[in-house]
Amino acid sequence: MGYGYWGSKHVRVLSSMPDVSVTVVDISPERLRDAAARCPTVRTAAHLGHVIDDVDAVVVATPPSTHFPIANRALGAGRHVLVEKPMATSVPDAEALVATAARHGAQLMVGHTFEYNPAVRRLRDIIRSGVLGRILYIDAARLNLGQYQRDVNVIWDLAPHDISIASYLLDELPVSTAVWACRNIGRRHADVAYLRLDFPTTHAFVHVSWLNPNKVRRTTVVGEQKMAIYDDLSDNERIRIYDIGVDPAGADDAQATGDMPVSYRTGDITSPYVPFREPLMIQDGHFVECIRTGRQPDTPGERGLEVVRVLAATDRAIATGQSSPVFGAPGVAPVLVPSSRAAS
C-alpha cells in the first residue's frame, strides 16, 4: 500500500521473490503507471478495498498519519501486515494495532529495517562478546538535506531507526528521554533535534536533521576497553573497532603534580568482514516466511509499540522542556491516555 520512496523499494524486493505476487495500491494514477512500467508483473489498484479480498498480506508504506487506519483495516480483515516505521503516530493507535492483530490471528510486523542489517547484527555480537567492555554511551547521527514530511517532525521521521538500533544493541528499552528540537524552515515541524535516551545501564545520544549538507548514517559505541563505529554509508568498512581509550587511574596524583588527569591508550583499528545483504530483502523475506510458517516476526507489533512509546515521550519532553519518562518501559508506571484514533 503506497508507491512512494519506500513503497517502490518493497515492490522491487517482493517482486523478485519466487511464488510472491504483488499488487500495488496507490491513489496516484501517475505512480501506478510508474509501478507498472518498472515491474510489468504487478497488478495495480487505486484503493485497498478493491483488492483486500484477493491478497494474503498488506505492506503499509504510506505517510505515518495513515498507518493506523490502513493497517487496522487490513488486520481487521484478517490480513497479515508489515507497516513501515513509525508503526503509528500515537500510543493508543499502536496499542490498538497490536490488539487487532491478536484478535484476528494476523501477523503484525514493523519495518525496523536496521534490525535486519547484517552490520548492525554484527555490532550487537561484538558488544555481547564483551570486547568493548562496559558500554559508556552510544552516539548516533542520522542527517540529510530533506526529505521534509507533512505529518510528523524530524524525530518521528528519522529517530525510530536509531531508537530501534540502540535498544537492539543494548537489549534494553529507554526509561526516559530529554530533547532539544528546533524548527528552522516552515511553520509546522522541528527539522533538527538532539535526543538523550536514558537506558537502565547507559545512555544514547541521537542527532537527527532534515537540514544538513551531508548525508550521515553513523552509530558510535563507546566502551571502557574499546570503541566501535558503524557507518552505514561506508562501502567496505561499515564497522571499525578502535583499540583506544582513557584510563583515569592516578587522577588524584595528577591533580597534585599538574599533569593531565587521565592517561590515553592507543592500539590497532580493525574492521571485521561483514558480507553485504540488502536489509530490506532480509526483512521482507522474513515477513513472507512468517506468513507461510506462522513464526513470530523478529520485529513484531509489540516492538513497534515500544518505539512509539519512546517517540511519544519525546513529544512530552519537547512540550515540557524536561526529561520525560517512557510510559510502558520496565520500571515506569503506565498512564491511561484517551484514544483519539480515527475510525477504520
Automatic annotation (TrEMBL):
Q: Would you say which domain of life the source belongs to?
A: Bacteria
User: Gfo/Idh/MocA-like oxidoreductase N-terminal domain location, by residue?
Assistant: 2-112
**Listed InterPro entries:** Gfo/Idh/MocA-like_OxRdtase_N, Gfo/Idh/MocA_Oxidoreductases, GFO_IDH_MocA-like_dom, NAD(P)-bd_dom_sf
Q: A single Pfam family, by name?
A: GFO_IDH_MocA_C3
Lineage, highest ranks first: Bacteria, Bacillati, Actinomycetota, Actinomycetes, Pseudonocardiales
Q: What is this protein called?
A: Gfo/Idh/MocA family oxidoreductase
Among PANTHER family, the record links this protein to: BILIVERDIN REDUCTASE A, GFO_IDH_MOCA-LIKE OXIDOREDUCTASE N-TERMINAL DOMAIN-CONTAINING PROTEIN
Domain GFO/IDH/MocA-like oxidoreductase: from-to ranges: 120-227
Q: Please report the organism this UniProt entry assigns to the protein.
A: Pseudonocardia acidicola
**Signal peptide feature range:** none
